Amino acid sequence: MTIQVAVCGPGECTAREEADAREVGRLLAERGAVVVCGGYGGVMAAVAAGARAAGGTVVGVLSRADRWQANPDLSIVIPTGIGEARNAVIVNSGDAVIVVGGSWGTLSELALTMRGGRAPVVQLGGWRVLDRDGTPLPGVRHAASPRQAVELTGLWP
Amino acid sequence: MTIQVAVCGPGECTAREEADAREVGRLLAERGAVVVCGGYGGVMAAVAAGARAAGGTVVGVLSRADRWQANPDLSIVIPTGIGEARNAVIVNSGDAVIVVGGSWGTLSELALTMRGGRAPVVQLGGWRVLDRDGTPLPGVRHAASPRQAVELTGLWP
Amino acid sequence: MTIQVAVCGPGECTAREEADAREVGRLLAERGAVVVCGGYGGVMAAVAAGARAAGGTVVGVLSRADRWQANPDLSIVIPTGIGEARNAVIVNSGDAVIVVGGSWGTLSELALTMRGGRAPVVQLGGWRVLDRDGTPLPGVRHAASPRQAVELTGLWP
Amino acid sequence: MTIQVAVCGPGECTAREEADAREVGRLLAERGAVVVCGGYGGVMAAVAAGARAAGGTVVGVLSRADRWQANPDLSIVIPTGIGEARNAVIVNSGDAVIVVGGSWGTLSELALTMRGGRAPVVQLGGWRVLDRDGTPLPGVRHAASPRQAVELTGLWP
């Protein structure tokens, strides 16, 4: 079965995050992975554009029940109609999850993946989570570049 | 954007329903449509096999959060983890919905599509719904063959 | 733990269905059961009003993420935000499910309950489901009055 | 309509978190608020026990489709069957959300509430979220005691 990687990030992002997401999409597509994302703007649109430009397949798992405002680079659209609960569906769909940049919705996706414990999580930029003693929580892998983010998934050893 | 057709049917089905579902899958794949289904056995496995054999793309929208018992012919797997509520996701993902055979889960999918009012519903075999006066409910299109089922979606005029 | 009964029915209903739903709500409240419903108009509003007037507790499991258009007789509001997928949540919440009247949304709830196989389903009026040979599907209990609907749940032997 | 407060926290918690959650439950029940929680162990069980002992009403919004391992102090049980996606339902059900202690599931609830932007979020202990520059994210209200947590909701001015 084809490898699937969920890529999460804010709908409004910086130019740097957009460039990073586009590069992540390209690298995943080159490795033959299907990209799963939230299907709207910002990081979601950038990773989709990057993967599509490299000939890849991109699935958009939308919060809405219709295709309104879905980005144009999706190969397949899943309009769940379940609102933000669809964040759980996105992360369940990834053999690994790559997080680019930070937002509350993005953080919920990172947290749901760690809660599930099924897939490795790689973070590129974005927010940091500390426990009550101020110690960074273990488990999330931190990357310094799109290339390292893809490598740290461990899916292409 | 690629046309997507949701195909619904029981996880345990008759040989006739299995053959019909396989043929529906083949015909959809030949027309370039992506098939969306529930991803497990019976009609779901048959439509996936038919589409895959014809070079098509098949998305399995699973009830479970993992890939346990997903059928082997899925191109893309969405392990929603939302249980039977995923039936709403399947039907939202179709530009049309084709129902092959009958079961309570299948009927819930037919009913949710009609409730949404967004996509045409075509039924091949399966159960019948009557209103309180014994009159068949209007709106569902009834097909006598896989080919007619695909035609009645109205997606390829 | 308190007995919970899910009561399902169309958002737009006849005067007869409204009266029936109100009476079902009253009878359930008198027996100390919590009523779970979809929280909007029609049968949902009537069963809530009937239960509330008899001093009962009513939970509205809404499709929307906010309380917009929720009926005023709900004791507790669960704005799920998961759209029509919330129908699965309503029926999972009942030790029995009573269906008053018919609509596509209502039928999806009846079908999801039968699919789950956990709770008895009683139907008062509404639509009929036949298998491909025209035989009524077994399993659903048919009541002729609100009182019989409550009795047929089997929860108060 | 009755005020509803969602209380979130880990299923496995420290003695301090358990005592805090119990006290939060008691204080909310004394103010007449309905407590909504995840319905299982740890903080969820403690807040339910505290509220119940003070005569309050507690709703457990479960991930599972049945009542398995639900805690015994729930007044009302909503077995959603939608897995961890139910975290979105819990937080949508609160006029305010109080977070006691930290875990990945708990963090997903905090993040989903902040994403929704509808309800104030108060945190008692637990994890900290910093942006990429190491600055604590604004918006979450931090309490030093159960009493302050309830006050900071702003629901009882």
Q: Total number of helical segments of chain A?
A: 5
CATH class of chain A: Alpha Beta
**Per the principal axes of the C-alpha atoms, what is the gross shape of chain A?**
globular
Distance between the termini of chain A: 17 Å
The CATH architecture of chain A: 3-Layer(aba) Sandwich
Number of domains of chain A: 1
Question: How do the strands line up in the largest sheet of chain A?
Answer: 4-3-2-1-5-6-8
Structural class of chain A: alpha/beta
Largest interface between protein chains, with number of residues from each side: A-D, 29 and 29 residues
Number of DSSP E strands of chain A: 8
Oligomer kind = homotetramer
Beta content of chain A comes to 15-25%
User: Which sequence of SSEs, written as H and E, runs from N to C of chain A?
Assistant: EHEHEEHEHEEEH
Question: Could you tell me the mean pLDDT of chain A?
Answer: 97
Q: Give the fraction of residues assigned to helices of chain A.
A: 25-40%
Low-pLDDT sequence parts of chain A: none
CATH topology category name of chain A = Rossmann fold
Evaluate the radius of gyration of chain A. 14 Å
Taking the sheet with the most strands of chain A, its summary is:
7 strands, parallel
